[in-house]
């Protein structure tokens, strides 16, 4: 079975997709981490994020691996652990430009489909239900208001988890900066020409602003049972 979870930055896709993978024994595929790896490799090699040939060449030549770890998974770029390096503000600032390059997307979609052919997968991203796996048995479009998303990311950067600790706080200035970046990326990701962020026609919409992780996961597991 393929479960596609799409939605904007910080809507809770990772937490929810992880939980579903654990609970139902599916392989977890974080496609955002793949675009982040391409972006990091471009930054390391001095390739401009909006250079279509340079970024495409990087996307085709790097190796990206996911290794299960105690707290989620480790991301390897050409064999190096880049789990933390792909989540820096510098990568945040450049990833929209890199992921808007059609040839970069083509290379990543090929890798993502190869994973889907190997078995049961829960994949999260922006174009999973529309482009990568249009025949996914379950499609979810997960949203949350921008403030809720910025708060979650800010808490996460400080090592906490707002989904678990409802009273968690983060530095207010950092949270405002994250909110501005999230709004900017929402705009870029949903208005780009190639595979813009949009719900598939047959996607189930879930707003996680005021729902706990377990409630969202329960809803998706019910959709999976109905689809079997
Ligand atoms: O989910 P994330 O914030 O880690 O994703 C990082 C960026 O990658 C995001 O700004 C848009 C892009 N992305 C994409 O274009 N298509 C995907 N399937 C996943 C992510």
Q: What tags apply to this protein structure?
A:
alpha/beta, Rossmann fold, binds 2'-deoxycytidine-5'-monophosphate, 228 residues, 3-stranded antiparallel beta sheet
Mean pLDDT: 95
- What's the order of the H and E elements? EHEHHEEEHHEHEHHEH
The order of strands across the largest sheet is 2-6-1-7-8
Q: Into which percent range does the helicity of residues fall?
A: 40-55%
Principal-axis shape: globular
CATH superfamily: P-loop containing nucleotide triphosphate hydrolases
Number of helices: 9
The chain-level structural class is alpha/beta
Largest sheet: 5 strands, parallel
Beta percentage is 15-25%
| Domain module tally | 1
**What small molecules does this complex bind?**
2'-deoxycytidine-5'-monophosphate
Task: Pick out the low-confidence regions.
Answer: none
Q: What is the name of the CATH topology?
A: Rossmann fold
Strand elements, count: 8
Task: Classify the oligomer.
Answer: single chain
CATH architecture term: 3-Layer(aba) Sandwich
């Amino acid at each position: 079975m393929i479960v596609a979870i799409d939605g904007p930055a910080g809507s809770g896709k990772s937490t929810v997709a992880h939980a579903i993978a654990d609970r139902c024994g599916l392989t977890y595929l974080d496609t955002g981490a793949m675009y982040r790896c391409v972006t990091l490799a471009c930054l390391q090699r001095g390739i401009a994020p909006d250079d279509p040939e340079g970024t495409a060449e990087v996307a085709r030549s790097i190796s990206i691996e996911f290794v299960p770890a105690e707290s989620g998974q480790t991301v390897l770029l050409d064999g190096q652990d880049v789990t933390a390096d792909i989540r820096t503000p510098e990568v945040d600032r450049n990833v929209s430009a890199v992921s808007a390059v059609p040839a970069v997307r083509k290379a990543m979609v090929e890798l993502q489909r190869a994973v889907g052919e190997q078995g049961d997968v829960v994949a999260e991203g922006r174009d999973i239900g529309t482009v990568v796996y249009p025949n996914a048995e379950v499609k979810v479009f997960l949203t949350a208001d921008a403030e809720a998303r910025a708060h979650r990311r800010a808490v996460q950067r400080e090592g906490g988890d707002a989904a678990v600790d409802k009273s968690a706080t983060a530095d207010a200035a950092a949270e405002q900066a994250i909110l501005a970046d999230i709004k900017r990326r929402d705009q870029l990701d949903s208005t780009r020409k190639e595979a813009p962020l949009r719900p598939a026609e047959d996607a189930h919409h879930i707003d996680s602003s005021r729902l706990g992780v377990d409630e969202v996961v329960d809803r998706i597991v019910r959709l999976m049972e109905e689809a079997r």
